[in-house]
Amino acid sequence: MSNRSGTRGRSGARIRPVAARNRLKRLSKAQYENLAAFRYALRQFLRFSEEAAQGAGVMPQQHQALLAIKGFPGRDAVTVGELAERLQLRHHSTVELVDRLVDLQLAQREPSLTDRRQVHVRLTDRGEDILAGLASAHEEELRRIGPSLSNLLERLGRVTSDE
Known about the structure:
- By secondary structure, this protein is of the alpha+beta class.
- It has helices at about 20, 30-55, 60-70, 80-85, 90-105, 125-155; strands at about 1-5, 5-10, 15, 75-80, 105-110, 120-125.
- The chain has one domain (about 30-155): Arc Repressor Mutant, subunit A.
- Helices cover about 60% and strands about 10% of the residues.
- The strands form two sheets. A three-stranded antiparallel sheet has the order 1-2-3, with no helix packed on it. Strands 4-6-5 form a three-stranded antiparallel sheet.
- It is globular, with a radius of gyration of 20 Å.
- The model is unreliable at about 1-5 (pLDDT under 50).
């Protein structure tokens, strides 16, 4: 969607037009280094996550879906629309992902008790077991890299450019 302040990406974050970007304050070399280091640390964690998922016999996107379902606030089942939003995917892509999860017996569909047009997606026992193993490995990895990530976030949070 377009507006006077620019367009919004799928995440909802504002994407500024080129003219507006040109007026932005330039970052210092240290700020670029901090951004690059943080991006590198995130990518390392994502790579760990991808490899852990594949080691558990699921694709990374399937792992993300399992986590989004189980981690949805307030309940253990989600609609396809809610899952699409959490994964930042289009509805039809999410339907295909849920189809694969159901085929692998990692998730099941349940009709909504309140709205017959909606279907909820819930993890099966098999999906719960796979997710539990992956969550444990991810928590361990985050404990390992947490201090480094915290340090990078602190450095990124500094407003001054005279580092």
